[in-house]
């Protein structure tokens, strides 16, 4: 069989190796602490489960309109007004199978073969692969602590060339947890518009912020594409539900593509998600946010004491991207050795790009404080040999 | 904004116009009979709802492995053995967000820009758009009653050229409901293998067959890509769950792509689907199949009496693709007029390709016999002026 050329450029995730070894150890009876995980440890909020169950009981689980249930699109529009003070017409909101589906849709709308798309390195590895899927060229831009691991307007300007069509940004970022400040985001949006490029802003970790809540990119322009999801802040990973906000003149095209690619997002998830925006649920999410914040404070403090370097504040998401150059020059070996010896699973830097991955490790704090403390003392013992 | 060139080639579905006019009429209080629908009218089988609800009650709705829950993949493998007598290793089965997701995955694996893919015309319109999504070129092959609206091995050979990389077939077919016979399928599989091309066999309407059950393409080769879904026979459209069977040497590539594109299929749907293969559920599905069969017999008979032509037997799915040349030379106008005057909604031939669409209409029999009878007397009055 002749496979597509794009497959040669798509790497499997190293964390899968970690995970499969972790599972093998668990089968042998070892206690593994999972700090490699990319999803909240909280269960789906009860109101969401209840609403979905109610819907299922009727048994009428049909295709929904391709863009999503009108009432869910309206609830999301209202959320933009309530949370950010930004008016977004519900017609611009496309409900998708996760943020993953939103990226499939957005890049399908925007990319032609050969188009270059700027991406922060380190960054979420799927962005580059979505670009490759459509024959585009991911342009990885090395970013560091100086710019809080973000592509800001100056960095963007320095890397933009004739073939560049746009950029993807994520704030708070995976794997770094760092945020773009409002004025930086504003400047970035302006810079891209000046160049008539597109901006896809991944706001999936909005809500999980521990200094100040971020503004949405929609605050500064109604020409940006905004991706969001019920996975992280709303605690609904396995439900596979997200959304894409498109400019008004993209609605028809987005509709056409969504019909073909997805038919619709899962109906039980859409009904469940209707309960996400209830005051009682938002209060529960705020409690969870504070739990994450406590874990973050503790984890950052302890990691520094062990000898990891944290030159920026991870102000959001549930990740710390720690420098480990004082402890190892090969973070993948370090992660594998740590897992083998102590049962603590981490994600090696290699999964996030080519910018010094061998001296970085991602710690996820989607485990309880007690488990985090246990993990940290295991790591301390491992490091002290 | 500069949109992707591929959008220019993707047409919106005409049935959406029909549907939106039908909804407007319903808001005015008109009674609309929906024969344009592409999903079964039965509710999700109770055992599936029960199993999903049980899963939701625990609240632990996480990402699953990218290829799907191991127990679901094994249940599907067992289904191939029980139903078709074919052994398929569960590792070759990828659980996807609908057959739609299976096509996104399969074409992502197989297509390079410029590759030609043979498709039956009339056919399911999304196939061509999946091909375009990845920069491929859909080659529509006109087929008629002589080949039961299928691309058989002779037709394939006549249309294959240097740029052709493979073909998509669907039996039973949407919109025609016709099937490829086992020996035709076998010859087609052989012919494509001889040419080192790929075959994607869409078996989504398997199970909904009213003459003989079809063999799976996997009977004849383990090199074919087979798409299937819980949407139609299993009655789970809104759950968005399907699967793709890949050749053994494609497993790693499929895994890489699925991780990036979907992360995973919806977890509640996967747990629910586990109940699909229980004997009690399969018996319920058999009862439903027989109900479809009665409707088909009645519909075909009545349509002929009204003056539609049916030169083949629609032996599967829940569609009849009727010739209307004795009644109109513009099936879109006919459908719009029929809707306006009588409240019966149909899908015009235009949605299924360029092969005499103006003299064909698709009738779906996903409504009760009583409603079908009502629709047919309305159509009779309309036709008689
Ligand atoms: C930055 C980022 N974007 C998008 C996604 C995709 O999430 P989902 O498809 O579950 O919404 C993830 C998942 O980990 C992520 O970390
Ligand atoms: C022939 C055919 N293939 C694939 C699909 C996609 O179905 P799903 O994504 O719901 O599994 C459909 C839906 O109507 C269809 O008719």
From TrEMBL, chains A, B:
Q: What does this protein need as cofactor?
A: pyridoxal 5'-phosphate
**Which molecular-function annotations from GO does this UniProt entry contain?**
pyridoxal phosphate binding; transaminase activity
Q: Where is the Aminotransferase class I/classII large domain?
A: 31-379
- GO terms (BP aspect): amino acid metabolic process
Output the CDD domains linked to this UniProt entry.
AAT_like (cd00609)
- What keywords is this UniProt entry annotated with? Aminotransferase, Pyridoxal phosphate, Transferase
* EC number, UniProt record: 2.6.1.-
Q: Which PROSITE patterns match?
A: AA_TRANSFER_CLASS_1
Gene3D superfamilies referenced in this protein's UniProt entry, alphabetically: Type I PLP-dependent aspartate aminotransferase-like (Major domain)
Pfam families given for it?
Aminotran_1_2
Family listed: Belongs to the class-I pyridoxal-phosphate-dependent aminotransferase family.
Q: What is this protein called?
A: Aminotransferase
Taxonomic path: Bacteria, Pseudomonadati, Pseudomonadota, Gammaproteobacteria, Methylococcales
